[in-house]
Structure formats: C-alpha cells, structure tokens
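Example 3.2
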Amino acid sequence: MQPVAFDGLDADLRQAYAEVDWSRTPVGDPATWPPALRHAHDICLHTSFPATLLWGPEYVLIYNEAYAELIGDKHPAALGSRTEDVFPEAWETVGPLLEDVMTRDGPVFLDDTLMPLHRQGFLEECFFSFCYSPVHDEDGTPVGVLDITAETTARVIAGRRLARVAALRGALGDVESAVELCAVVHTVLAEDADLVDVALRLADQPVTDELPRTLPDDPLVPGRVFIDDGADGAVAWLRLRASASAVLSPSGGPRPETPLLIARLNPRLAVDTAYGEYVSLLGTTLAQAWDRLEVLGLERQIAATEHEVSLTLQRSLLPRPATVPGVEVAVRYMPASVHTQVGGDWYDAFLSDAEDLVISVGDVSGHDLRAVSVMGQVRTLLRGLAFRSTDDPGTVMTLLDDVLVGLHLDTLASGILGRVSKPRPDGSRELTWSNAGHPAPVYVGPDGDAGLLAAKPEVLLGLAGLSGVQHGRSTHTAVLSPGSTLVLYTDGLVERSGRHLDRGLEWLCEVAAAASGSGAEELATRLVADLPPTLADDVAVMVVTVC
C-alpha cells in the first residue's frame, strides 16, 4: 500500500505529522491506513475550512492547517490523540454528539454552539457552527466522523454586546436622576455575560466589596478605558467623558467630577481590543445619559414652570390612541426642543362613527408655539372631518385643504390620513389612505418583508388655493393581513445631518423587518431607541399591527 502523502501541508504541520509515532496510535502507521481513511483525510486536507477526522471508536484526531490554528496551544499534541484526552473540557458535549452520529449513521449540524476550550492558557468561552458527518468503509459501515467547523465566537459576542448596548440605551431613556442612572447600570449590566461585576461610582460614592475600592495608579483620562489585568482578574476603569457642549454646574463653578464605570471582566474571554471598545461604547452611552441629566437638571432650575406647562400642553394635543380589538396601536413622540417639549408633529388614532379605525400622522412647519397651536387646529379639524364622514381619505383631505384656505390659517403641513376597516372573514382589514407630501408609510408583511407604500407624491396641505395647484387628492388601497404591521412617522425619524434620506428609509425598513412579530410597542421602542439626546426635529411615530 502506498504511503499517505503529506506534501500539501505547510512546513509546520508537515513536521507535526512527521513527529507523531503513528504506529503507537489507534489508527496505526499511515502506510496501513484503509482507503476510507485515506480518502477522508484527503478531503480534510484540501478544504480551506477548519476540518478534522475523528477516527475509530476512540475518535483519533487527524486534521488540517486551519484546524490546527483553531485549537491554539492544543496543537501539535492533539494530532493523533484521542478526542476525549484533547478536549476534556468539551467532552460532555462532544462525546454524545459523536456517539449519535455513529449510532444513527447520519450527520449533525449545530449553529453558534457554546464550546468552552482551553486553548490559549485559560478556559475560553468559544462558539462554533459545525457539522459532524459519518465516514463509511467499503462495506458502508461508519468508521469515523468528519468535522468541518467555523468559529463564530467573534460574531456571537459582538452581537450580544450590541444587544446589551441597545438595551442600556432603551433603559436610559426614562432616567431622570443620577441614582436612577446607577440603578439602570446595575440592573441592565448585571445580566451582561461579558461583565462579571459592574458599578457606576458617583463622586465620593463607595463601591461594593466585589469591586476594587481604590483607583489605579495611572491617571484616568475621561473617555479612555484603563484595564488592569491583575492576579485577581482583569478590571476595566472608565471615567465618563462629558460632552464639550455640556453646561456648567448650576452654581456657575466647575462641573463636578463625572461618574466612574468599574467592571470586572469575564475571565473566560480574551482581553483584546474589541473588549476595550465594548467598555468604551458602554461608557459613551452612559456619558450621553449623564450629559442629558446635567442639562435636564439645569433646565429644571431655570424653567420648571415652563417645563410643566409645556408637558401638559403636549399631552393634551397628543391623546392616547383608540383601543381596537384585533389591532395594536403604539405611538411615540420625541420633541425637538427641550425647553417647550412641544412641536408641530402630530399623531392620532380614533374610531369613526362607522367604527373604522382612523389614523393620521402629520407635521406642521415650524418649531415654535405658533406651530404647536396650528398643529392642534389642523389635527382637530381633520379629526372632526373624518369622524362623521364615510368618504374615502382623499376626499376628506381635500375638504381639509378647503377649510385651511377658507379659515386663512396660512400654514403648510404634510400628513397622512388612513382608514382601517373592520376585519373581513379571513381576519384581514382594508387600508385606504391619502398622502399630502408626507414620507411614505412602511408596510411589514406577516413574512417579515418590509417596504414603502409609495405612491405618486401630492402637494402639502395649505396649497390648495394657489394658482396652478390641482384640486382634489387621491386615495390608495392596501390589505393588512393578520400579522402585518404599518408604520407611520414624521421626517425627524429618518432625517439626519450628513446622512442621505434614502439611507434613513433603508434603516427604518431594516429595523421594522427585524422586529417583525414582536408587536407594535416593541417596534415603536426600537425605532426611537437610537435617537440622539437633542433632536433637530420632532419625531412622531405610530405603529399599527393587525393581530
């Protein structure tokens, strides 16, 4: 029998193969390897993916270069050794899988599976997607397993870190004090798999016994992560960096010291650049919340009365949406001005006299109290016209045009008026709508596909009296199947300085598709979670889900 050729291997792996006394292993000298092993070994060596054979009843490891890199310092001792001896830390998972493949004589595929490995000096949290396939001899009997794998550790950990940052941002949205901020950090980050212990230390505030009580010797530069990888494990320190535009202290003196984030890192993860960037991202998120708290605190002292009045006005102008069986309606409003807490955007959802659900979202030009006043008038007029009318939305919007011109309101506004019918026998509902120069709604089907309900643009409300402007508006029709979602919004949600509008619309569709099936409230929360603390424009969002 011809000897097995190892010429295709790189020098290091070829040397490792040469140094194994194969005759003392369960698979024997390569010159005696059976055709099934030779053929499987050839496949293993000629794939670019990490691949290994687990041969015979003792599952002896015979692998390629990519697999040698994957198992770290287990190589070269792993070559020709029993799997159970090489991977004792993972054998509880791997052993039953291999037995299942051999007994059932069929492949096993697992995706993003946790597989702790001791491969670079410590027990490391690793994730893999891999396929175990049986290898048969000439008689069709399974004699080994071919493992082709891909490590997904970086992707899995990055995904969970981004999810944790998003959860932190969402939880910080309602924080109104430093005490609440610390509580949110403790609650949200206590569940973080990347941080064993974590605390946000305010000025002159002690930390828990689980974390260091003294600062490191090196001075802490705000915004820069300092990691002390000591004998008791790695600890990250980060002094929050205040915004350059943030206000001075209320007394007029220097600002108080910003909080200090302290976190003991997971001992099963490598302390690498990505780890530091994650802690930095958490710090940036907390710093934004801290800046917002400082601004909020100063404004409370300067304009507490104005703040309370404006909030009352906002709530009166933007009532709660109607409750309709079989339809979930969620709304969000984020103001552009922190001083008045009101603006020209509106949403509305109510039952018409015919018991259809009437929905509207719009934007009156301007960001002052006049815009607020006019917005209230426009929304009220539209509500009154649509409540009794059985006409289609295009006809109602045409009437609104005439009223705005006839009453000399001298305003321009964009808006969408929609009517959602009562359920049909199959549970679906008919949507009819008219669009007056407003961003197109987003429709998410039951299958999760999201896209714009685009139609030919029509002019803004308030232009009907101008020469050359066509009188009359169109009505469009769509079907809302059970499980589908409709998103209405104002332009502040998708417009950002330095970003093309098309990219904002793509982002909106991506978020809506990703949240398919999670419910209207969850989608509405996700859509406003990433908004900056200070908005250049109001944001109104309405999410309608047919159950």
